[in-house]
Design goal:
- By secondary structure, this protein is of the alpha+beta class.
- It is 30% helix and 27% strand.
- A hairpin with a 2-residue loop joins strand 2 and strand 3.
- The two termini are 26 Å apart.
- The mean pLDDT is 93.
Length: 419
């Protein structure tokens, strides 16, 4: 799970990229990076840490140019190190930088193929570097000193043919322009916007609409599954479908957990989707337990489940209360690498308001139940706080199978609902 942004501007884009990445910080707190381009020169800053920690004033001043891309990273493939922070760079052809959200399922196979047949060396285990080198190789095969939009779209077509998995990509071709494309199933989100300035039209491509609207751009539309967009160095906009058989199959976890509630993905409001989840859960409780459900109060597990839990409480006709206070200086436990670290983090992150639990039958609502590690800890916390009965519900459907498209839950044996 990562966040990407690319801007083709008519004025310096360093501050806009910083602000966009801050709006996408929820998508990854492991590392951040920005690369800009001015007069054929690239300026790169990337490191491990939050956006605010990676970019200081001296770094921002060095990021010159009207075109640039940025990335916030949570490691789903490779390791957590500054070497694997994005964007990645390859010098031939043209000088290409790339930022990627998702996961390639055949990265190892392509990695070997790139070395044996394309003679391309990769310095990390990141599938994003694999994707970059595939794009670079396909562009190099075109053999053009100055690639046209058609050359770029043909290269993206070959990327779709060679790469399997989920990916949303922004790439910058030095001196040529900005490219954005999405896998043929639209698993990971990608959206673009524009705004008119005194000097001409500016464009932005990002993982979520919030990064677009916060910068004062107008959302144009989502990039379709398999589609690519290209903004050349003069600001001309091109788009083309590059996949043979695109089929829309988005990741439900974007709506359940990852995306901000004020985002709209593929025309669907994330906030409204979460309201609907609460509504469906309430209908199931009433269908199976009836009006005698014995629930005194509904308490959300902060923060993502709050919207669903509120709608659930309204439909059940019971009180909605904030029973857990969250320490906002602890990272999200679901996306913390390692089981022990997740478990330890729960009690550091959440603290119960005992008044809301004492002597009550409590329904705890989480956005999802994946491994079950955190919910067992939370249930025990509710009991320790004096709850008479504790019910635990997931706003999302059961997670029975692995997700290998950019989420840290690859092993079926780790999923509590898999049996």
């Amino acid at each position: 799970m990562c966040g990407v942004v690319g801007i083709a501007g008519k004025s310096p884009v360093n501050q806009m990229l910083f602000d966009a990445l801050t709006m996408l910080q929820h998508r990854g707190q492991d590392a951040a990076g920005i690369v800009t381009c001015q007069e054929g020169r690239l300026f790169l800053r990337k490191d491990v840490g939050m956006v605010r920690d990676v970019f200081h004033t001296r770094h921002m001043r060095a990021l010159q140019g009207n075109y640039g891309i940025g990335h916030v990273r949570y490691p789903t493939a490779g390791t957590s190190s500054s070497a694997e922070a994005q964007p990645f760079y390859v010098n031939s052809p043209y000088g290409i930088t790339l930022a990627h959200n998702g996961n390639l399922t055949n990265a190892e196979e392509i990695h070997d193929d790139l070395f044996k047949t394309d003679l391309r060396h990769m310095n990390t285990d990141s599938d994003s570097e694999v994707l970059l080198n595939v794009l670079a190789h396909e562009l190099q095969k075109r053999g053009k000193l100055v690639p046209t939009s058609e050359d770029i779209f043909q290269a993206v077509t070959r990327v779709h043919e060679r790469c399997k998995g989920g990916y949303a990509v922004v790439a910058m071709i030095t001196g040529q322009g900005l490219v954005g494309f999405r896998d043929p199933n639209g698993i990971r989100p990608l959206i673009y916007g524009s705004r008119e300035t005194e000097n001409g039209m500016e464009y932005i491509i990002a993982s979520e609409s919030v990064a677009i609207t916060a910068l004062g751009f107008k959302v144009e539309r989502d990039i379709e599954p398999g589609e690519a967009v290209f903004i050349d160095s003069d600001g001309n906009f091109f788009t083309q479908q590059c996949a043979a058989n695109p089929e829309y199959r988005p990741c439900i976890f974007e709506y359940v957990y990852f995306a901000r509630p004020d985002a709209t993905i593929d025309g669907i409001s994330v906030y409204k989707a979460r309201l609907k989840m609460g509504e469906k859960l309430a209908q199931k409780i009433l269908r199976e337990w009836g009006d005698e459900h014995d629930i005194d109060v509904v308490i959300p597990i902060p923060d993502t489940s709050r919207t669903s839990a509120l709608e659930l409480a309204n439909m059940l006709g019971v009180k909605f209360r904030e029973g857990f206070m969250k320490n906002r200086y602890i990272g999200r436990t679901f996306i913390m690498p390692g089981q022990q670290l997740r478990k330890k983090s729960v009690r550091q992150k959440l603290n119960p308001v005992e008044l809301e639990f004492q002597g009550k039958n409590v329904l705890l609502v989480d956005d999802s139940i994946v491994r079950g590690t955190t919910c067992n800890e939370i249930i025990q916390m509710a009991r320790d706080a004096g709850a008479k009965k504790v019910f635990f519900a997931s706003a999302a459907p059961m997670v029975k199978y692995p997700n290998v498209y950019g989420i840290d839950m690859p092993a079926k044996s780790e999923l509590i609902a898999s049996e």
